[in-house]
Amino acid sequence: MASDSAYTKMDRMYRFQRHFYDASRKYYLLGRDRLISEMRISEGDHVLEVGCGTGRNLEILARKYPDTRFYGLDASGEMLRNAEKRKDSKALRNLHLARALADDFSHSETFGLEDPFDSIFFSYSISMIPTWEDALSNSLKNLRAGHSMYIVDFFDQRSMPVWFRKALQAWLKKFHVQYKPDLIPHLKQMERKGAGSLKVTSLYKTYSFIAEFRKTP
User: Fold this and answer.
1) Would you say the pTM of this structure is higher than 0.85?
2) From residue 91, how far is each of 39, 66, 77, 88, 161 by CA, in Å?
3) pLDDT in tens, 18-49
4) d(Cα 163, Cα 144) in Å, to the nearest integer?
5) What domains appear along the chain, each with residue ranges and CATH number?
6) pLDDT by residue (tens digit) across 65-102?
7) How would you write the chain as a 3-class SS string?
8) How far apart (Å, rounded) are the C-alpha atoms in residues 50 and 74?
9) Could you tell me if 129 and 135 are in contact, meaning their C-beta atoms sit under 8 angstroms apart?
């Protein structure tokens, strides 16, 4: 099955990487903390991270908003092992984790929630999801009307020196990470079709970006 293949691929990739993932990624996954600080989150909300990895972002949020419920899903059981350890060691009772695919989860079946999420965010995970269009569509389906889906990820880096851009892209390719040139045009097309409103902010010139897609009320 395709899902089995995706789970196996992610576990193979992160079986050893999970031990040094956080220490290495902090140097080039720029903009994560800005997204965390800018997301509109209220007490009592249910907030999902798609592709939560080791749970680094969710720990920050769960400690900042103790009366808000946070959820994380990932295709890699290996990465979720780290996330579960983090959750237990920090006693994060408002954090819930599940193994699922970005294009196949549901708020009800995956997490047992009656209502859709109040916010959903992707932190450097879209660039790793082959079925990213379906992942976005599925996330909107599981998001409350009038609420936002957020993305922080690599931009086109057109303002960066050519040598830097090529070196970074070659490095990222080793981890099956690739900038999606059709991503922002796709979000704009969703906006034109009336699915919601889009705001895109470029970070560090054009190194990365934050997008907020607010679902039509």
Assistant:
1) yes
2) 23, 11, 20, 5, 44
3) 444 454 455 467 899 999 999 999 999 999 99
4) 43
5) 2-215 (3.40.50.150)
6) 999 999 999 998 888 999 999 999 999 999 999 999 99
7) CHHHHHHHHHHHHHHHHCCCHHHHHCCCCCCHHHHHHHCCCCCCCEEEEECCCCCHHHHHHHHHCCCCEEEEEECCHHHHHHHHHHHHHCCCCCEEEEECCCCCCCCCCCCCCCCCEEEEEEECCHHHCCCHHHHHHHHHHCEEEEEEEEEEEECCCCCCCHHHHHHHHHHHHCCCCCCCCCHHHHHHHHHHCCCEEEEEEEECCCCEEEEEEEECC
8) 7
9) yes
Amino acid code (one letter) for 8? T
Residues 6+ apart with CB under 8 A from 109: none
Q: Which amino acid is at 37?
A: S
